[in-house]
Amino acid sequence: MGIPITVNGRQHVVNVAADTPLLYVLRNDLQLSGPKFGCGEAQCGACTVLVGNDATPSCVFPVGAVGVQRVTTVEGLGKGERLHALQKAFLAEQAAQCGYCSSGMLMAAKALLERNPDPDQAAIRRELAGQKCRCGAHNRIVRAIRRAAQELRA
Questions:
Q1: At what angle do helices 85-92 and 138-153 cross, to 10 degrees?
Q2: How far are the Cα atoms of 24, 48, 119, 121 from residue 126, in angstroms, in the given order?
Q3: How far apart are CA 14 and CA 147, in angstroms?
Q4: Which segments constitute the [2Fe-2S]-binding domain (predicted)?
Q5: To the nearest 10°, the Cα dihedral for 72, 115, 45, 139?
Q6: FRET partner for 56 with CA separation of 20 to 30 A, picked from 5, 67, 120, 127?
Q7: pLDDT tens digits, residue range 116-154?
Q8: How far apart are CA 5 and CA 113, in angstroms?
Q9: Which domains does the chain possess?
Q10: CB neighbourhood size of 140 (10 A)
């Protein structure tokens, strides 16, 4: 029996067990490579996606729990000439080195800006506490999120 799921505005039916981690469905069944496998224990943030409007570690979130909520991955933010303000700001601030954490950082930032369109540095750092960056780009990431917030408010 298939599980219906809406990802990045497109409806899909996946033939997997309901307890299959959402990350595996996104990467293996839907061929979306944005969310990354990092730790498999919801500790690093590399797999973060939006389920509804909530930043969610997809490595431990069962696909059967998605229900009617929409799932958004970094691929659903923007592409090519139509980048989201967060993606533009990450580029402008050079907020990625290796880029492994970028997808999760962007999705956590998107969830934050949906709730709080004008976060201060402390709020951004609290939101990113579950997102690990081994390269040390956190200061640039914080600047990028502030920049995107300003652009989105304008």
A1: 140
A2: 27, 15, 10, 9
A3: 38
A4: 73-146
A5: 120
A6: 120
A7: 999 999 999 999 998 998 887 889 999 999 999 999 998
A8: 24
A9: 3-76 (3.10.20.30), 85-153 (1.10.150.120)
A10: 19
